Every structure is written in C-alpha cells, then in structure tokens.
Amino acid sequence: MRTKTENEMRRYRPVRMFQQALGIGPKELARIIQFQSLLQLLARGQAASLADAAVQCGYYDQSHVSKSFRAYYGETPGGIFAVRGARAQKGQVVRFLQAND
Q: What are the backbone angles phi and psi of residue 16, rounded to the nearest 5°?
C-alpha cells in the first residue's frame, strides 16, 4: 500500500512536468489565456462593454478582471482606458499600451 506522500507525489507530478516544460503552472497559463481572450474581444469590438467581454471570458466579478489587468498590465482597467481615451465604439480598434502604432 502506498503512503500518503507517495500518492501526493504521483498526483502533483503532471503539474511539475508542465511547469518544467513551460515555465509556468497550468492555472497561470489558463489565466493568461483568459486575459488574452478578453483583450481579443475588446480589440475586435465584439462586446458591448468591458463587463460584457469579461462575462464572455469567464470572469465572475470586477475584482478578478482588475486583478488580471494589474497582473499583466500593472494598471487597473479604468487606468488603462482613461489613458487611451476611454471607450471604443463597436468595430473600432482598441489600442493597448504595448501597441507601437
């Protein structure tokens, strides 16, 4: 019979292998993909508002959206959009801080 630590080691091995291969854990990769999806919706004008885009991308509340913006942009959504001239109209391209043009 296996001990508790042996079972835990077997359970976390795929996560360790994932981290070794990609340099980040699976949950962090999922957060990055979720945030990139949010940015894509906003850039393409496929959502009526930031809140609509956030819901479509699986965010449950404003605090999680703000946390992602702070983590990946170092600023809250309000700060980003205030710098960029506020809201985009449907179909208008939203230029984010990393855009060079």
A: -60, -40
Question: What is this structure's pTM?
Answer: 0.70
The alpha carbon of residue 22 and the mean position of all alpha carbons in its chain are separated, in whole angstroms, by: 17
Place of tokens 């080691």: 9
* Per-residue confidence in pLDDT tens, the chain, 101 aa: 666 677 777 778 888 899 999 999 999 999 999 999 999 998 898 888 899 999 999 998 889 999 999 999 888 888 877 655 555 555 555 454 444 54
Which residues make Cβ contacts (< 8 Å) with residue 29, sequence separation at least 6?
22
Q: What is the 3-state secondary structure (H, E, C) of 1-69?
A: CCCHHHHHHHHHHHHHHHHHHHCCCHHHHHHHHHHHHHHHHHHHCCCCCHHHHHHHCCCCCHHHHHHHH
